[in-house]
Structures are given as C-alpha cells and as structure tokens.
Amino acid sequence: MVKTVLLVTLGGGIGSAFRYLTTVFVNKYYASAFPLATFIINILGCFLIGLLMGFFQKNNLPDSNLKWLLVTGFCGGYTTFSAFGFENISLLQSNNGVTAMLYICTSVITGLLAVWGGLILVR
C-alpha cells in the first residue's frame, strides 16, 4: 500500500506540474475569455486516460504499478475530468446509459452549485 501511495503521489505531482506548464503555455500564446487552457487540459487528459486504460485493459494489467503512477497519479494530478470521462464511457459501454446521463447531469449541476455555494460562504 505504501508503494502504491508513493506511485500515486509521484505521478500526481508530475501531473500537477504539467497542468501548470500547459496553462502557462496556452495563456502565453492564446489570450481568450474562453478558459482554453482548462479545456485543453481536460481533453488531453481524457485522451490520455483512454489510451492508458485501453492499454492496461488489453494487456490485463488492472493493478499495475504503471497504472497507479500514470492513470491515478499523473492523470489525476493533470485533470480529474479524465476519470469522469472514462467512468461515463464505461457506463455507456456496459449499457448503463441512464446511469451515465444521471451521473453527468448530477455531477455538472451539483459541481456548479458547490462552487457557487463555496463562493457565497466566503463572501
């Protein structure tokens, strides 16, 4: 367990650093009112988790150290949106479309309400 925590921590730290660097790079070259850096990070994270999880599933490596380092750690540090995307695709692939739509809608709406509630509490 300690080894797994260390792998997730290492991957998460690297992912967080890459998130920061992506934000700096995008904002330096593309000034926009649209949150382009976060959008790019979320889409890249979703693509990366798709590649990685496909690889680990194809090679039957559900508890691989690389999975903890790269998926849980790196992708989790880079963006949690990637896990959200993967979980919904998994639900859709297992014919749980109603659950997926419920998860998507409740996550987005509840997430926005939670941010709004946090902002109100600080004011």
Automatic annotation (TrEMBL):
Membrane-crossing residue ranges in chain numbering: 29-56, 68-86, 98-122
Protein name: Fluoride-specific ion channel FluC
BP GO terms, sorted: cellular detoxification of fluoride
GO-annotated molecular function: fluoride channel activity; metal ion binding
Keywords: Cell inner membrane, Cell membrane, Ion channel, Ion transport, Membrane, Metal-binding, Sodium, Transmembrane, Transmembrane helix, Transport
Known regulation of activity: Na(+) is not transported, but it plays an essential structural role and its presence is essential for fluoride channel function.
Cell location: Cell membrane
Pfam families: CRCB
Residues that bind Na(+): G76, T79
The gene coding this protein: fluC
The keyword Protease appears for this protein: no
Function: Fluoride-specific ion channel. Important for reducing fluoride concentration in the cell, thus reducing its toxicity.
Family membership noted in the UniProt record: Belongs to the fluoride channel Fluc/FEX (TC 1.A.43) family.
Topology in membrane: Multi-pass membrane protein
Reactions accelerated catalytically: fluoride(in) = fluoride(out)
